[in-house]
Design brief:
Order of helices and strands: EEHHHHHEEEEE
Structural class: alpha+beta
Number of domains: 1
Number of strands: 7
Strand content: 25-35%
CATH topology: Thiol Ester Dehydrase, Chain A
Shape: elongated
Strand order of the largest sheet: 2-5-6-7-4
Length: 175
Amino acid sequence: MRNLPDVLPGRCMPPAGLFAGNQMLTVSGHELRDYIERELPPSGWLTIDQARITAFADVTLDHQFIHVDEAKAARTPFGRTIAHGYLTMSLISYFVEECGIRPDNTAMAINYGSDKVRFLQPVKVDDRIRAHAVLKSVEQKNSGQFLLKTRFTIEIEGEEKPAMVADILSLFFIA
């Protein structure tokens, strides 16, 4: 397991090119179906610190105390601040670069939505999370377009129950 640095001053995400291990798996379009129901290698760990949670609160205008008021959050059953569920979900875009799959010759990919999302337990401040991905389905939409459904499970280090499970749809355009 490799560790990514905490938030760098003035940044919410580590800089590009930081990954030393896994990279998104790239396979030919006709090989995609061979990967259905196969778990891909997990991503690296990412620490969810208060700076990241507060930055997300600022962007989304969701300043509920459980996310940003450390003293008040300490008096809740969680014992400390927690990340927004949608912060956890939004990090799939980050994790997919390490643990996702795509057809080769991809010119671009777009978020096509999600079929099912469940937040099973909160990510607390300073928890480390990582993603696991399983390709669930592949559909050729038009010539040069593949719709992939991938199940992402966000694991919290040291916890049995995951933070989140989501079936994410991505539309890939082939060059």
